[in-house]
Amino acid sequence: MRLSEASARFTTHLAQVRRLSAATVRAYRSDLADLGTTVGDLPVAEIGLEELRDWLWQATQRGDARATLARRSATARSFFAWAHDEKLIDADPSIRLVSPKRPRTLPRVATADTLDDLLAEMREDAARGDAIALRDHAILELLYASGIRVSELCGLDVDDLDLDRSTARVLGKGGKERVVPFGRPAREALDAYLRRGRPALLARTARPSAAIFRGVRGGELGPRAVYELVARTLGPRIGADAVGPHALRHSAATHLLDGGADLRAVQEMLGHASLGTTQIYTHVSAERIAAAYKLAHPRA
After folding, report:
1. pTM above 0.85, yes or no
2. Of 272, 283, 294, 299, which one is the catalytic site residue?
3. In sequence order, what are the residues at sequence separation of 6 or more whose Cβ sits closer than 8 angstroms to the Cβ of residue 144?
4. Span 104-128, mean pLDDT?
5. Is 249 a catalytic residue?
6. Does the annotation count 72 as an active-site position?
């Protein structure tokens, strides 16, 4: 079986059997397409360790980041392990493939004061009753309060919210459902939006649905619009042009741990499959403590 056909079968397996997210499947597909560009549409059994090393070497010559090289190595290992399990190859050539370690980067986090100031301004704008201002305030409050992903936010339906209990039911990666709590400011912002903002936006479309968050023309709000909202409102305050909704997720996790929350509880709230993924935020908190120490301690 040639690489192109095997790649198509593999990505179908990822989507339908392993139930990975659409974005993750696209990344695998892109990496395997790049492999095909380098080695050609060879039979999978003819792709060996040298071809894989040459693929990564050419990516290095192009100036691809170490994180990209590490991801492509991981893609190759997953693909050839699957091909071996499917009896498409006799031996897995990727076992000896060495990839560069990803550089350790800590997520960008906004301070609690920065977010308090931003959300207070948005609350004042929303108080004037404009539907978009009500929506934007509710979005940022919920993202920060719950730490949910932008895809989870955009996938929320009206029935997923329980304002009495201050919880939201979200569908995370791999189709895993979880219930996340949020606080009083988010509940009040959501209540105001649902009563005064959402009906006004729904009136602008002939195709209503149960989705909570709506666009300017009344249709379902997409992730790109949420990215633009966060970049426009939060970006200038933390000095980042490319800041997105994940900055609020990072901030929520870090502030929870700063406040004494249990790491396992934060893992459950964020929907991380591994506790190791959540532990990155303990390092963020440690950096904040060290910075405060250097500023405040007389013998720092």
Report:
1. no
2. 272
3. 115, 119, 186, 248, 251, 252
4. 88
5. yes
6. no
